[in-house]
Each structure stands twice: as C-alpha cells, then as structure tokens.
Write the structure tokens for this entry.
Amino acid sequence: MTGFTTCILHNDRQQLIEHYSLHKPVHTSVTYGYKDAQELLDVFQNKKSGYRYGRQSNPTVTALEDKLTKMEDGVASLCFSSGMAAVGALPLAFLKAGDHVISSVFLFGNTRNLWQTTIDLGVKVSYVDATDVKNVQAALLPTTRMVFVETIANPRTQIADLEKIGELCKARGILFVVDNTMTSPYLFRPKAVGAGLVINSLTKVISGHGHVLGGSITDTGVFNWANFPNITANVQNQPMWQRGVNQLRAKSLRDFGACLSPDAAHQIAIGAETMALRIERQCSNTIRLVEMLDADPGVSAVYYPGLKNHPQHALATQLFAAYGSIFSFELKTGNNCVNFLNRLNIAISATHLGDNRTLIIPVAQTIFFEMGAERRGEMGISDSLIRVSVGIEDPSDLLKDFQQALAD
Ligand SMILES: *Cc1c(COP(=O)(O)O)cnc(C)c1O
C-alpha cells in the first residue's frame, strides 16, 4: 500500500486509459450504447457492470469515487452535487417517518436546517452535546437508526467523543455517520472509530481551489447492512460492500438527481492531488496565527483544538494527524469587528472553508444569523465570534496582516 499522495496521483493509471493517458478523461456522455441488445439488458439487470445513464453514474465520477474510497480506507464511495446533497442523501436513503436520529448539536448550520426538514417529514431528531458519549447514550431510543456527528465542529471547534460514540453504535448496531469535512481523510479516517459512513464536502479542502461544489459518502465497510430495516429488497440482495452506496444511488441520484457533473469531478480530482501539501501548510500557518492571537492583549478568546486549554485537546492529539486550519476567536472590542475586518488586506471577508486563501467571517451576523440567538446560544456561538479558515499564503504575510489589523 502506497502513501496518501502517491495513491491519489497514480490511481487513475491503474486501469488502462486510452493513449496511456495519466488522467481519467472527462467523459461527458450522458448515455451509453452496448455491443448488443442482450448486453443492455444484462447491465440493467445488474448481471453485468456498466454505465446506464449519467444521473446514476459516470466514468469520470467513478474515478474520483475510487480515490475517495482509498483516501478513507473504505469499500465504496458515491459522489454528489455538493456536500449538502451528500448530507441530504442520508434521510432520503436511510430514514422513514417514525425513525429516530441522534445528532450532535454542534452542527454545520445548513445540516441543522436539513434535520428540521427531516423532522417536518416525521423523523424524530435529538440534538445532544456529542463531546460526551453519555449524552448520546441517554438519548437512545428503540427506534434510533443513526447517530450523526462532525469531527471538529465549525465554528467553535468542539470535538465529538468519536471513539466512545463509535463503540456505543457498534454495541447497539446503530449506523454511525461522521462528517469528516473539517478534518479531511488526510488528518483523520473516521473508520478508525467505527463510523459506517463518512461524509466529505469536496468543495472544501479536498479541492482547495473553490471552483466547484461537490460532496461524497464513503462506506467504510464497518456497518452490517443486513440488519438495517430501511434498505430496499433488491439492494439487500447485493454484496454487502455495495448495499450502502447502491441504496444511496437509487434514492438520491437516480430518484432525486443530486449527481456530481463529470467536469466538477475532474476539477476536484485535480485539487485532491495536492491536498496533503496544502493541508500541511494550512495547519502550520494556523498554529502560528493562533499562537500570535492567543498572546495578543486585544484578543479575549481563541478556540482551536491545538491549544492546550481546548477542552478536547488531548482527544484531538490522540485522533488527528494535526489540528486543522479552522479556528475562531473573539476581540475585546466585542461584536464591533467590522473595522478590524476592513483593516485586513490579505485575509478576505468571506464564507467558505479549506480554501487556498485565508477567509474570515463574523459568524453570528452572517452564516448563523438566520437561525436566531437561541439556537446560536445552544451551539456556543457568541455575537463577537469571528471564524478564520487559514489558507496557504506565505506565513510571514499572514502574520503581518493580522498584526497590523490588531495594532490599529
Ligand atoms: C461545507 C460543509 C458542508 C456542506 O458542503 P457544501 O459542499 O458546501 O454543500 C457539510 N458539512 C460541513 C461540516 C461543511 O463544512
């Protein structure tokens, strides 16, 4: 088994590609012809593998899925038109009215809204402080089908009690789903803590360039689908490693159309080639920036798992290869941060995470504005919280930029 980056760089050419091309070409065809009519029937009846129609699968997308499976050390992956399409595929494919989900309360805001829609459709969702497995255990019901957590929560960087929740889910036969976007498979593989499914937003650090949206779900091979009640009968007859992704493919790609375009898959694959290098630079930039801010008298709080005073610092050190490139902080001047943001010349006032450029945003007034003060309170988001997604700029430029903005 080769290392992370070697594997990504050399994966396409493991299959013979026309002209010995090193990259999987962008296959734009929506439909496929066959040698003869019998082959068409065989492909549609799953007697033979092959492509049918672009909404269900595409060779360029398959090449990316194959890389994602290797990155996550899983058995199969499926791509979606965005990270949210991947999260939204979960209730579509795996839940029915009356089922119960336990979700971390520290959530990507849009995922929280999606769970609300799911509740409106008859699923019960319990939000718990997932930094302690006891809260997950206390919320269990006989109808609990799924536990959903993010690795490091955005923006306050709380870390779920990943190992213990994984053990609990294993003991109860419950599907454990981990959104790995904030860590990426380079820093952490949720399979190691017993996750059955792993979500990644491909829009973020896996691409890095911010040109396309994409999302994925990887089946780690850990979960036993045989006992899961909501898998359709024809999928339950398939080999175990295909059941999760084929249930997702039927419900959310074939029936719902949330498919990734081949052009987007190609651009994501290009970005993924350099992700390890970019993440290393982002993480080292982040530590330097965090240390500087933490020591600054104008800064009242810094939230980053790499800091010794972070409540889950020990867990992060144990589980993750590094502490990531997202942190948040508060200025002593409180929620009047507009002038500070305007003084920055390199860090851009913008949403988004894992980009090559450093992005900064006050969260209560923007991405978490719509949900209101009460829910923000539950998630630990104060009005003065500012989130930073650290890019790959030269570290001295970044430090100087923040220094001069703080000094003014
Ligand atoms: C951004 C993000 C998503 C959604 O991804 P998109 O590609 O923007 O749809 C889901 N989960 C987390 C943790 C994210 O940061």
Remarks:
- Residues 279-407 form a domain with the Aspartate Aminotransferase, domain 1 fold (CATH 3.90.1150.10).
- The longest strand covers residues 144-150.
- The chain has two domains: 4-272, 279-407.
- The chain has a mean pLDDT of 96.
